[in-house]
Design goal:
single chain; alpha+beta; two-stranded antiparallel sheet; 266 residues; six-stranded antiparallel beta sheet; 4 helices
């Protein structure tokens, strides 16, 4: 069994670290509807600086996309260029959802005063129910090799949730804390109840309480350190990817990445 001591020590270092005086920002789960609006603004050419196709973004990263689109649309208004109603609505939805990450200088209403610690005891609650008799099948070999994976088109794109042929109910909540020195922590526990129809008429019933995603994130300047378990998607199309997809479970990781794209020269 692999020891968790190195990861635990690094996590303690993250929790004890001091950073610049900036509010921490949690990441936004890979299937949040905000990404649809962000992708629309990017596709419309309203965003110049963005890392395309990498998820999750942080809330501040999505706020950067919303700011750029808002400024670009303001510039287009002065030159009488057309902006579609759908693009305007997408930008407005993002601005409303991310109002606490935006300042009056960005042309929106001033956010509420930021407390020393921002706690979301219940940021979101999702309930999914699925009943299907579609069987799960293995990936067939192609003569050159094989893939160790199971496929079921009715249960894809659920971020590693093990849905079975039969009845499924999944309840997932999201909780987070953000600190003014650049640290944020979040967790998404899940309760999965299943009633599986097995071959030969047998029925497998059970309930599982699991923690599919939980992480700590420390931001200093434009560099973010994430330690924990988090969904990672690098898509080239919705629901598809070259490396990871929304079928795969979360990854146990230590990740160092930019909080927003670096602009060179800088």
């Amino acid at each position: 069994m692999r020891s968790a001591a190195p990861v635990a020590l690094l996590l303690l270092a993250v929790l004890a670290a001091r950073s610049v005086a900036a509010q921490g920002s949690v990441t936004v789960r890979a299937d949040d509807p905000m990404y649809l609006d962000a992708d629309r603004l990017i596709d419309a050419g309203l965003v110049d600086t963005v890392i395309v196709g990498q998820r999750p973004y942080s809330r501040t990263g999505l706020a950067l996309i919303a700011r750029q689109a808002q400024r670009r649309m303001a510039e287009m208004a002065t030159t009488h260029e057309d902006v579609s109603v759908q693009d305007r609505r997408a930008a407005e939805r993002l601005l409303r959802a991310l109002s606490r990450e935006l300042s009056p200088a960005d042309g929106v209403n001033a956010p509420e005063a930021v407390p020393d610690v921002r706690v979301e005891w219940l940021h979101s609650l999702r309930v999914e129910a699925l009943v299907t008799d579609a069987p799960t099948r293995a990936v067939p070999p192609n003569g050159l090799g094989s893939s160790e994976a199971d496929l079921n088109t009715f249960t894809d794109y659920h971020q590693g949730l093990r849905l079975v042929s039969g009845g499924n109910v999944a309840v997932e909540s999201e909780h987070s804390m953000e600190f003014p020195f650049g640290l944020s922590v979040q967790a998404r526990p899940r309760l999965w109840i299943h009633d599986e129809r097995r071959d030969g008429g047998g029925v497998g019933r059970g309930a599982t309480l699991e923690l599919p995603s939980a992480s700590a994130r420390l931001v200093k300047g434009n560099v973010a350190l994430t330690v924990g378990r988090e969904y990672t998607v690098w898509p080239q199309a919705e629901g598809a990817a070259q490396f990871f997809s929304e079928n795969a479970p979360a990854l146990d990781m230590i990740r160092v990445a930019s909080n927003a794209p670096f602009v060179l020269p800088s």
